[in-house]
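Researcher: Next entry in the queue.
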Amino acid sequence: MEEPKGKVTVSDPTQMKIDVQTEPFEPSVDVHAPRTSGGATDVLMRGSLGLRRTALFLSLVSFMLVVFLVSKNGDWIDFSMRQEYRYLLAVAILSVLYNGVQAFRQSHEPCNGKNMLQPRTAGLIDFVGDQVVAYLLLSSTSSAIPITHITREIVGKNIFTDTLAAAIAMSFLAFCCLALSAVISGYKLFTRTYI
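Model: Structure for this entry, 195 residues:
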């Protein structure tokens, strides 16, 4: 009859036999793993993707509002003569393209199990791209705010100025999302945690 492991067995009162089985020690922490745990990595990935999708949606709304104004032509103002509004439109288009490509890449990689880019390159593109597009969004909103404010003081509130104010607000909210995304991508880049 086999006795359980780790128990003290006494066969003769003068001799005591201790049967202890030892197994090799395996550390429970992988020293080569990224510094964040699996849960934190998953939260960073979801947060980054959610912020990019939100920025994509807000930039698309801003773009559509400005295009709506171009088609209406503002009745009394030649839209194409206002450089501030053309800049707002161009940055909205750039933001839609950037966030669309980044959201597609981040959604596609986990589903496929393959990285489209090297992790270091992807981290660098995320960090620099987020900062550049966020700066452009902020500068386009700050250039369009004064002319919209002046126009509101001269002619009062109308559909043209209200739509421009909404487009500016959407661009600013897209900037906020990309600024938070830049913080996450900077954290991933400088802690070498590539998702």
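Model: Residues 5 and 85 are 80 Å apart (CA to CA).
Researcher: Noted, moving on.
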